[in-house]
Amino acid sequence: MQRVLEGCAEAGAEIEWIHVADHDIRYCRGCFTCLREGFCPIEDDVPAIRDRLLAADGIVVGSPVYEDQPTAQLKTLMERLALLCLYTDTFARQRSVRAAVMFGRCSGTIGAKTASLTKGYQPLSKAPSPRLPRRARALGRRLVQDIQHPKAFDLQRAWFDFLRALLKRFVVMRHPDQFAGVLRIWREKKRSSRA
């Protein structure tokens, strides 16, 4: 992650670090209040983290990976943001890089294997690829470039977005009581885009 962020800084980006383990992030209760009301009723640090992520143009998400999953703290944050983000496209504007893990449109992924059954744990400095730091910095620079110079049109992405939006609209409109918060957010977005 540090090397990816170095690449972002080399390309002129301002960097802000959020260390998820330092925050109070509670588990999702599965109450679906976020969909009905448009907000999560759990009082912790997630709304502040979400606001910081929304203020960013790009997001670098990184985590150690255990059994093909990110750490419990990051997974809990992603789960808390997932439902409302899915239906309201909350992070549609942001670009992201996954340093071994979801937000926005992906500009790339990078990872390094630091543990195996035969060799056990090895520090990242002894990771098998000596090109890893250079590749990570290049990925950070590419993230900034993708933000500054987005592709004009991506037909495959546009088609996927269209189908996804159609499916979401179908589900939400069939159950307006269950998705009242989502409908309110959609109306607010529509009003602000006209202004």
Structure overview:
This protein has 195 residues and is mainly α. The chain has one domain (2-194): 3-Layer(aba) Sandwich (Rossmann fold). It is 48% helix and 10% strand. The protein has seven helices and five strands. It has helices at 2-10, 33-37, 46-55, 72-88, 132-148, 155-174, 180-194; strands spanning 58-62, 95-99, 105-110, 115-116, 120-121. Helix 1 packs across helix 5 (132-148). The protein is globular. It starts with a helix and ends with a helix. The model is unreliable at 100-104 (pLDDT under 50).
Give a quick precis of the structure.
The chain is 48% helix and 10% strand. It has a 3-stranded parallel sheet. The protein has a two-stranded antiparallel sheet with strand order 4-5. The chain contains 7 helices and 5 strands; from the N terminus they run H-H-H-E-H-E-E-E-E-H-H-H.
